[in-house]
Amino acid sequence: MDAEKRKRYENIASELTRLAGGKSNILGIAHCATRLRLVLEDNDKADIHAIEDVDLVKGVFVAGDQLQIIFGAGLVNDVCQVLADFLHMDSMSLGDLKTKANKRMNPLQRAVKALSDVFIEIMPGILAAALLTGLSSVLGNIDFVQNNDTLYGLSRLINISSGAIFGFLPLCVAYSTVKRFGGRPIMGIVIGCIMLTNSLADASAAAQGTVEVTTLHIFGIPVDLIGFQGGIIVALLIGIVTAKLDIFFEKKVPEVIRLLVSPLLTTLVSSFLLFMIIGPVGRGLANGITAVLVWMTQHLGVIGYAAFSGVQQLIVITGLHHVFGAIESQLLVDTGRNFLNPLMSVAIIAQGGAVLGYLARNIKEAKAKELCIPSFISVLFGITEPALFGVNLRYRYPLIGGCIGGAIGGAVVYFTDLAALGFGTTVVPGIALADPANNGYVNYIIAHVIALAAGFLFAFVLGIGFDRKKTSEAVSNTTAGNGKHSAEILSGPAGNQKSTEPDASAGEAQNALPEVIGAFTSGEFIGIEKVNDPTFAQKILGDGVAIVPSEGKIYAPCDASVEMVMDTKHAVGLRTAAGNGILIHVGIDTVNLQGKYYDVHVTDGQSIRKGDLIMDFDKDKIAAEGYDTSACLIFTEPVDGAHIDRESEHMVKAGEKIAVITK
Description:
The protein has 663 residues and is an alpha+beta fold. Helix content is 55%, strand content 15%. The protein contains 22 helices and 22 strands. Strands 17-13-14-15-19-11-10-21 form an eight-stranded antiparallel beta sheet. A four-stranded antiparallel beta sheet has the order 1-2-4-3. The two termini are 37 Å apart.
């Protein structure tokens, strides 16, 4: 990570720490593909609305008793690492973080998260199988491929590969489940092998009555020797049991004989339970789930499809959507087609359409573009969290529009009899999984275009009503508020109405301007562009000034409150009386000193007056360690419309005017 990025991420880390309730409130940190996940001692101490406005944050929510902050793929890795360094806390694996979070979850939340973990572990294999299945289906319908020996041979190998992965999927699920629940993964492989051994009658052949099934009688209970091909639910259940047995026997068996006896007992007991209890119960549960879904398609028709795709993204918000992986895999095994995948896919793209609808109504706002464009790109690859939590849920009406669009897309899926041959990917990549029967690829595109357009249209139209309601409430509140006058509403572009009466905070900030900024130390006053750090020089964090200090003291440049003191003591964030956010950063790359040679005299939340001593630092020792001692003052959050006029470069004494912030 280059220095420029690290500086920016350090500011994000400090802000997140403060807004999450401070270091003492953060118990653990980790990240997934798009989200930074924090386990907090007290979630109520976190200012979620303020976190939404932190640099690079696309959305914030609490799920599974974790504070989840959406940054996006790739970026979240770096932010998590910098935050871990800032907190002096190791970044955890998701498993370790969940252990902390699980202590605070209810049983349903724990079950859903565990199920999610199982399928995340084996998702690469599932995706490979699904894509190979789609490719095999395409090649199988091309006459040229079938008539060419080489291409036919390649097609057959692809077919065999995809079939093998799905054929042994129960083994993969058993392995991942045992691992997730704390057992030794090899024991999951062992029980998976037992489930699929050719000593048992093939489950599909047994169901068709084309093979003779042997029945044993154990304690008077009939046990059919049928394999568990396609038994995803059974694999999940027996995986949990095997993990718990493995942990139990590892603790109870004496160490002298543990290596031989513990795995023996785990395998033996798990096998008995598999055939006598878990297998029959799991088969019944799997058959019941499939029967309900098939019944829904046959009896509820378009209403059932539309209802599912309309609410599916609401289920994503709760985190319960992770159960669909097990249901989809079981549906594929039992019917050969997965109609849930395209329903979820159109629900996703409809939310993307709603994002575009919101953007169209707020196209002149830079913040809207910053939020909406990356969020929509993520939607194209089946990732809706940035769109849901960064835009649609935050502003409400896009979420409603997206749900309506999803329902319309679901109806199209029904009428075109669209289904998938796998699961695990949606939207643009998901087309590879579409069943090519009945013009499946064309129908896939049509369904997604209609859902996208519907989401856009309904979000746009609902936004008109939403903004009118807000304007009406604003007029009503202003009129009733003081009885002396009513605010004049200037009708601008839709969604951008402005009142001629500024709110109180804006008025106070305006009245406090112009604001004089004094020299925060003595030395050579220079432009921020001359600082030997690209983050500051290129004004990535904002405009500013700098002083090459002649003394080792930092003073308050104006009346302000302390918003943040870096743990490494080399930087302090202030909020001026006029509402301007500023950062005083002493030295370049001095974060590496971890606070050595610095002594800070202020604390978070403290009010200070111009000229108060903020920090002592030993500039000579810092320079001796090879660090540039330039002290920078960055205007990270100037009030709206503020303009910074700085003095010419010269030698200054602490307290001397160096800049003026005007309106």
